[in-house]
Amino acid sequence: MNIPFLDTWRKRRGDGRAPSAADGGDPDGVANMLAECALLRARVQELGVRLDDTPRSLEAIDQLPPRWRDDPEELPWLGNDAGLYLGTVIVRTVPGASWHLTPAGHPVVTLASGREIHVVEAGLEWAMSGSPQLSQVYAEAAEA
């Protein structure tokens, strides 16, 4: 899923990495923008879950009844938000993890080991089928 506001990253850098403090970018601002996940936050709040950017909140999301699957128009947007939220939790809690863009403009998380996690794809798979669970993807990232 292409996210138009991320075009700024591609214009600033040819390598697809997120802007960093070293090159005059604002990685915290970009991370905060990716962390908004407004649709996901609204839907889970309706069910009594508060997203606090911790692995515990990923576990709570995994336990929700998948009512979003009843709305084929909302499902991809919710999955996108779930992936961005997963990435937000990883970047904020796993040392050395950071956001960057693929050449196609998709946000991914890169771990200190160099491994890339396509969090939006994981979020879409989770929204459509429930597997892999978001907390499972997080646990694998935290181990790497």
Short overview:
With 144 residues, this protein is mainly alpha-helical. It is built from 7 helices and 3 strands.
Can you give keywords for this protein?
144 residues, mainly alpha, 3-stranded antiparallel sheet, 7 helices, 49% helix, disordered N terminus
Work out the number of β strands: 3
Helix content: 40-55%
Strand-pairing-aware structural class: mainly alpha
> Termini separation (Å)?
26 Å
Strand content: 5-15%
What kind of assembly state do the chains in view correspond to? single chain
Number of helices: 7
Instruction: Please provide the ordered H/E string of secondary-structure elements.
Output: HHHHHEEEHH
Whole-number average pLDDT? 84
Main beta sheet: 3 strands, antiparallel
- Strand ordering within the main sheet: 1-2-3
Anisotropy-based shape = globular
Point out poorly predicted stretches.
Answer: 1-13, 18-24
Overall radius of gyration = 15 Å
Care to describe what's here?
The protein has 144 residues and is mainly alpha-helical. Helix content is 49%, strand content 7%. The protein contains seven helices and three strands. It has helices at residues 7-12, 27-34, 38-46, 55-62, 75-93, 119-129, 134-143, and strands at 98-101, 107-110, 116-117. It has a three-stranded antiparallel sheet. The model is unreliable at 1-13 and 18-24 (pLDDT under 50).
